[in-house]
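Field: COMPLEX_INPUT
Field: COMPONENT_COUNT = two
Field: RESIDUE_TOTAL = 508
Field: MODE = joint
Values follow.
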Amino acid sequence: MPEEVIEIAAAREVPEIEVIVGHAHLGQYQVGMFDANNQNPVMIRTGDNTVTFDDKFPLTTGAINTLHNKLLVWGVLVTAFSGVSDPYSVTVILTQGTQELARHTRTENLSNGMAPEVGEWRLKVV
Amino acid sequence: MFRRISVVSMLLMVILGISSLRVVQAQESPVKWGRVPAAEPVLDLAVPESPAFTLLGLSPQNVVRPATPRILASSLLSGIDRNGNFQAGLALDVSPYMLFAGDSLTIEEYRKEENWWKRVLANTQVSLATTKGAEKADDAVRLGFGVRTILWNRGDPRQDLELQKCLLTNLKPPLLTDFPNPNAWKEAFIAYPEIGAPIAAKCRAESEKQNWNASSLELAAAPSFLQKTGSDDNIAFGGAAFWTSLAWGFEGIKSLKDTSQLIFHVRYTLDQETPDPNIKDQFFKQDTVIAGLRVRIGKPTLNVSFEGSFIHSDPEGARSDNSYSASLGTDIKVTNNVWLQLALGGTGSRGGEDRIFLLAEVKWGGQSFDPVGIVGKALGAL
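Field: COMPLEX_OUTPUT
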């Protein structure tokens, strides 16, 4: 499957990524980046959706151009508190300021009370 | 009040392993016109999970639980033919709030105190089922519609912080920094549920052990309708049932909070089609009110219950009837999803039709089996 390339404006705010786990399930997530050769992984954040701060955070604390050609990857493990066949949904949104750059949403039924969701976007700073 | 059972009969039951012989059936006498059979002596005081299925007497093999509105619409459309007639075999179970707004309901939002109404809506299930009549001459399709809501639940798994702690402590999906390339990590992450799902199941089982007797308040309602085949405008009301159960888990009472539960249950059935015991294939309508109280003591896999219930029956065209029943029973978890229920009790105020009963039921995956019926048929076939 060809990579999905997301363009990021160099002169604007630092892009942010948000992870939303719906249907009141537990979500453990990781967001990280691999370099242009898909090596040398760096973790941006790992956490879960039970803590009381927003699951929305910047991709970097440095300059935006450091994101050029990086592969942004994310993984969300959804676990049910009950209802092992209930629906689940995962939404991952990449924004820059008020502009939405990319979105991934999946809604399906859980299998044995658990579902992994992974994704990736190649970043191109323009 | 109680009929006597000979000691020899009791010994025979034990020797043959038929510990659940239905003495009621063996000694029943014809019911006089004007009096109707009372409700089942041992009542299920739980609010059914899918009221529509219960009202129609179904345990469907395949229940559609739509994850999206599109799937819901598709399932509904498949249950109606081109003439607008309901088709038998539809079984749907859905939480409407979760279906339309669940994508944005995070666990954090769910737990906020001011979002109590979201919790109620999230725990409201709607069930829908269709079935054909049991008799050849009866070509009507019965449609059952049910709503069940949990207004209050101290055992809500989503609010169980110990469960959350167990999951977060023990679930360790592979970290992307431990892999040389993204594909290797994604493959390991996607495969993690093979390890993680059983761990999560253990955490949930432990939570269930702690919360099996938690306090809760549930309501349910289920109307049913009849539609004659080929008559899309001939839809008749087929009766309804309403339930409520209030359970108290003795929270705050140290000696009882882990072992005991008190349940108060009220059920009202309206225009319930009841077979006339005096005239074959004849039915009459009856309203019934049942009020029951049960005390359960024990643990999730084995508990004893004492139960008493009052039954008021009001048949159409006949005088109303009051009776009561009391029983001592036990629930035994044989293995995962298989339960054995035993009960010994009696009924009263039924004017000569009072009886003592000894019952057993095996429940497996939502279905119930009467061991006597199965063993009896097997013996009869020999």
